[in-house]
Amino acid sequence: MSRTPAAALLGLVLGCLALGPALGWGFVLAQDMVFVPDPGFSRFTFGLAGGAPRVVPSDAVVTALSAVLPGELVQKAILLLVFVLGCSGAARLVPSGGLGPGLVAGAFYVWNPYVAERLLMGQWALLLGYAGLPWAVAAASSPAVRARRFAVAALPAAVGGFAAMTVTALTALPVAALTALPVAVPGLPGAPARRPRVRRVVAVAVVLGAFSLPWLVPALLRPAALTGDGVGVEAFAARADGPFGAVGALLSLGGIWNAYAVPAGYGTPVGATARLLLALAGIAGFAAFAGFSRRGRAVPRDSAAPWRWGLVVAAVAGFGVACLGVTAPGRAALTWLIHLWGGFAVFRDAQQFVAPLALLEATGLGLAAAAASRSLAGSRRSPPDGGRRVAGGGRWVAALVAVPLAVLPTMAWGGAGALRAVAYPAGWTAARETIRRDPEPGDVLVLPFESYRRFPWNGGRPVLDPAQRFFGGGGREVVANDTVRVGGMVVASEDERAQMVERVLEAPAPSLAAAGFRYVVVDAGTPAERRDFDRLLQGARLLVDTPDLRLYRFGGPIAQGSSE
Predict the structure, then answer these.
(1) Cβ-count burial of 279 within 10 angstroms (0-12 exposed, 13-18 middle, 19+ buried)?
(2) CA torsion 42→43→45→48, rounded to 10°?
(3) C-alpha–C-alpha distance, residues 274 and 244, integer Å
(4) What stretches pass through the bilayer (predicted)?
(5) pLDDT of residue 97
């Protein structure tokens, strides 16, 4: 079996092992990962309502696919694709004729703290771009890169949206700029060395710009959604999730800000030490075997990585961005930039930018495995048992595939059971059908007015309230709170409509109908909170009353709501 199909198969196996109970029938609802059955298109889907257009175009793609396939299958296919695409892409980057080194790189690339934490965080769209990163590097470093080829490679990031595209741009542009032409390029005879490089950078930049339009245009049309709230700089800064501090966590590809997204048992000294040593081994392997010239030593052309300098620059830049929130001066600088322009808020959750470092470490481990395999083969070439010993060397390299699993065992089985498929309660479906059958105008408000929920039917796991997607479509906007609470810090809402609702709820005599709402969905809340809701919902008719959800409808004229 050739390298790419074998690596894809390995990725599928690792994906099944990592997801475990998440592959059961139903939906995995974890942190930011929200999939719903039969979703509908809405202004929120296209970034024209709500906060910053973070779900563009990923939500639109999922909605379109769910019109053809059950939403449960769409979610599982996307999650497995992350592992298949990432493993096979990283394996292809290792310049080795053997199968084992590529599998070593692929296994580490999809089984590490970055993938584990972002998976538990529910950020599948970012992981989709992460999975396509090796393919983007390969396309951007092609001697005669064409925009079409890079567009195909960058498609996963384009689907993922702005975070995935930002990480891809951070990696692909340096690779395109710093990859040298090894020899004369067909079709470019006698061309100056700089001209093909400029063409390559321009082609990559044009594709990245075009693929960014789905989320860039809504962001420009609604600049108020790009808030200058600097509180998130500290709230979303990289954290120490082991004994080596925040910088050590970032080198190990961990350090996510959310404690609920850290795998079980992650902070043990033995495990943390093993993960840090493995990461440092990858960096050392890249430095030693990627093809950097050293005095008195020739670099074999077939073992050199032509994109090495570009990936080094991307990894260093990404690591530097990730470290911004670690120090007080870095936090102050980023806060100043966000106040200058809200678009810099993308750098608040800075740990995501260690993605190119993950690719560097993965390929470094693969290159080290390839060098070890060549050395072993060269030292044991004497007959009659040389063939058998070389095969043994291949088995030794293949055994390294299991090392990432050994140092991060709790990533398996849905993060030790943290990811599980569940079914939405019948009350949710009944409420949605009631809303969709109603021809009268008016939007939907979700109470309690908080962003995250811990539903009993979801095992008490925190999840971004799925009501905004579940009840969306049909010309109605579903307004939910997007304020994020991290410990004692509160990252303010980016949605002007949500801010208006907060003012209405705080008024002495709040009128939700006058604020443009025909329906109110109450999907959680303590008994005390529900008594407060009764005051808000005086005059509204209770249409659906189940232990999991209540649906109320206001009669009479409903004021025209505003998404701005």
Answers:
(1) buried
(2) 180
(3) 12
(4) 73-91, 98-115, 121-140, 152-181, 201-221, 242-260, 272-290, 311-333, 353-372, 393-413
(5) 73
CB 399 within 8 A of CB 101: no
User: What would the pLDDT profile of 397-440 be if each residue is shown by its tens digit?
Assistant: 668 899 999 999 999 999 999 999 999 999 999 999 999 999 99
Q: How far is CA 491 from the centre of its chain?
A: 20
Token readout for 505 is 């709820």
Structure confidence at residue 384 (pLDDT): 52
Q: Render pLDDT for 99-155 as a digit per residue (tens, 0 to 9).
A: 899 999 999 999 999 999 999 999 999 999 999 999 999 999 988 778 899 999 999
Q: What is the largest CA-CA distance in the chain?
A: 93
Distance CA 31, CA 121 (A): 5
Q: Report the C-alpha gap between 362 and 437 in whole angstroms.
A: 52
- 378 vs 299: CA distance, rounded Å: 17
Q: Say if residues 363 and 90 touch (Cβ distance below 8 Å).
A: yes
DSSP label of 67: T
Amino acid at 472: G
Handedness of CA 370, 374, 375, 376 (dihedral sign): positive
- Type and span of the H or E element at 344: none
Of 64 and 1, more confident: 64
Does residue 345 contact residue 226 with C-beta atoms inside 8 Å? Answer: yes
Query: CA–CA separation, 381 vs 411, rounded Å?
Result: 40
Which has more confidence, 529 or 251? 251
Asked whether 18 and 99 are in contact (CB, 8 A), the reply is no
User: At 394, is the pLDDT very low, low, confident or very high (cuts 50, 70, 90)?
Assistant: low
Residue 51 in contact with residue 225, Cβ under 8 Å? yes
| Tokens 């779900």 sit on residue | 55
Question: Considering only CA atoms, which of 87, 485, 53 is closest in space to residue 257?
Answer: 485
Rg (CA), the chain: 25
Coil, helix or strand at residue 297: strand
Q: Minimal CA–CA distance to 449: which of 509, 512, 360, 397?
A: 512
Pairing of strands 443-447, 517-522: parallel
Report which DSSP code applies to 33: B
Return the structure tokens found at 243: 């004994």
Task: Please count the other Cβ atoms lying within 10 Å of the Cβ belonging to residue 409.
Answer: 14
* Nearest alpha carbon to residue 369 among 110, 113, 98: 98
The pTM (predicted TM-score) of the whole model is 0.93
